[in-house]
Amino acid sequence: MKTLIVEDEVDARKVLKFLLEQYFPDIDIIGEAASVSKAHELILKEKPDLVFLDVRLEDGSGFELLESLDQIDFQIIFTTAYDDYAIKAIKFAATDYLLKPINPEEFKTAVEKAITKMQLFADYLKKEQNTKEDLTISVKTAQQTYFVPIKDIIRLEADGSYTSIMTKDGQIIASKNLKFYEKILPGDTFIRTHQSHLVNKKCIKGIDKNGKLKLSNNDLVPISFRKKSVVRNLLKNKN
Q1: How confident is the model over 1-10, as pLDDT tens digits?
Q2: Residue 173 forms beta bridges with which residues?
Q3: Distance (Å, whole) CA 93 – CA 77
């Protein structure tokens, strides 16, 4: 679990690190910050799972930090000498609110709570992903209707008012256009790499020397200029 300590007092940071090492040696401390600006930078760069957050920082407050983020996808444990911010902390779904000096047992309970919440969320995401992968879509051709598991679709290519769908079992020429399939397929699973191409992210192997996308079936797909950075970031996170 990647953990960030946001605290303006050096001694307080030392205490948190000591308690983590004592009770949770497997937790990875990815950084420390004493200011809103530094913490904001580290959160965007390191993507922590857990943040210990003081209310009062060098250049603002912990609440200002949270309000500056587009999304909060990490657990928060507030650590402060002030007990009058607890209600406000609830607004940000804080896992816990620890008062200084920090009680070791309360600290241990708070971190265990954060770990449990993270595991529950991870299980939920896994279940949701498995559900999506079990779904099928109906694909109509001139002759018949196929029911194709989403996980078996490698890529789709526009062919005028038709769509060529390449699956693990072969090619299907569907009677709907690519835009139709882009709307019904999950956006977190498929990416439009080019005006005429929609690709299953899980089937991407890499980019060849000519700048084309190489897929699991060895097909090569062009990448538009606008999508190059998106695709490269996708591959970077995948690796």
Answers
A1: 899 999 999 9
A2: 164
A3: 10
